[in-house]
């Protein structure tokens, strides 16, 4: 019963656009997160069909159930695993079973389809084949990749080395796993692997984070001891990633408007061993860039609220035409945030990211911002990343299940022009698949010769195989994971 109540509560919020499924499920503190997440996602996908079924029967009127609870129960009865609770709800659902089944059958006949999946709105049908592997980020504040691999091997997992091609990820099954081909602190497992109850997760040694969502902090790559702003930070996965890159040194200012999400974030950061953060329940747009507190802030990560249309289980809703108005208002907010980020006097780099597939929230925001801020330009990111921003924003990255085996995502990095002397080359190389040929991308800078202050040039990025940082990056053995 508790499962259905929680699922209905979250579905209600999701349909009112009060939050993303993943966050709401996590915040619910329900013990079986995976089960709750699956039920909410699936009911949400079939929401319009369930509404049609319910409307065509007297189910709501007779049971006096609220619509979201009715949908969740009807989903499990007709499409899911069968109603699993006992008591009055089970009796009630059994009483209405044949009428609800008949209503579903009538809809299938009307639409001339035989399978339930064929009733899904087209956006959801496309993604039925999309399987996203389980990505696990090793929290280097608490452990090392080697220690996690050893620990898992002792538990019967099979380590298959570093992936060399995207297709290697599709072949993962059972307890086999790989190191990711782009991000060295990321392990990849089959989609079915669940770590929510695993010791490594509960102890904060691993973070369950989609690969695309790991890109912003990885690309921003703030140096140890730097001052960094995470503008829209909760629930804090990217904040903890930034802290790991900064080795918990320096200052990490993290803002979020939402008190509840911030409190979840505090728990998450505590578990991850983050100590360099300064959390504030504050509107980023009202943070004063001129305040002396931020006078050394050179790196900003901006991951503002977005339509969430890249999240696989939300895809069809976000593609509905009536979303246009909402997209415009989100885009306006995102542009204000990005413009605001560029007002910090010492800012050198800003990474802008969304989990949206819409150009309105991605390339269009970046384009408008660059027009309004000619002192900034785009940095060409990871040259061998397979999915690029829409024309002409090839410097930016996109991600999606088909091309990158991740949720839909967008990342851009803006850099202050004065960081590069005119005519200098910005060299950005990338970690390559094992055995792959080294690729480099040389971009001609057209920046005016204002000041040469950037000691953190792109060639020092750890993705550059030759960078000092990468050479020095010896993963320290820290705690014994079993202690
Ligand atoms: C996409 S989520 C951020 C996810 C986060 N970066 C992470 O990786 O866990 C967007 C966040 O922006 C927050 N937000 C929305 N408007 C804001 C504002 N004006 N100032 C600060 N935070 C804001 C929302 O509460 C939400 O938590």
Features of this protein?
single chain; 483 residues; alpha/beta; Alpha-Beta Plaits; Rossmann fold; 3 domains; 8-stranded mixed beta sheet; 5-stranded mixed beta sheet; 19 helices; 38% helix; 15% strand; disordered C terminus; binds S-adenosylmethionine
Can you offer a commentary on this structure?
The protein is of the alpha/beta class. It has three domains: 2-120, no CATH class; 134-208, Sun protein, domain 3 (Alpha-Beta Plaits, 2-Layer Sandwich); 213-482, Rossmann fold (3-Layer(aba) Sandwich). Helix content is 38%, strand content 15%. The chain contains 19 helices and 15 strands. It has helices at 2-15, 21-27, 33-45, 47-55, 59-63, 67-78, 87-111, 122-127, 145-154, 167-170, 199-202, 211-220, 237-245, 259-271, 315-318, 324-341, 363-372, 401-404, 468-472; strands at 134-138, 158-162, 176-179, 186-189, 206-208, 227-230, 251-256, 277-281, 297-302, 349-354, 376-378, 397-399, 409-416, 425-429, 440-444. Strands 6, 7, 8, 9, 10, 11, 12 and 13 form an eight-stranded mixed sheet that branches. The chain has a five-stranded mixed sheet with strand order 2-3-4-1-5. Strands 14-15 form a two-stranded antiparallel ribbon. Strand 6 (227-230), helix 13 (237-245) and strand 7 (251-256) form a beta-alpha-beta unit. Helix 1 packs across helix 3, helix 1 crosses helix 6 (67-78) and helix 12 packs across helix 13. The longest helix has 25 residues, at 87-111. It is globular and about 70 Å long. The chain starts with a helix and ends in an 11-residue tail after the last helix. Mean pLDDT is 84; it is low at 421-483. Residues 232-238, 255-258, 261, 283-285, 303-305 line the site of S-adenosylmethionine. S-adenosylmethionine binds at residues 232-238, 255-258, 261, 283-285, 303-305. Pfam families: Methyltr_RsmB-F, NSUN5_fdxn-like, NSUN5_N. InterPro entries: MeTrfase_RsmB-F_NOP2_cat, MeTrfase_RsmB-F_NOP2_dom, NSUN5_7_fdxn-like, NSUN5_RCM1_N, RCMT, SAM-dependent_MTases_sf.
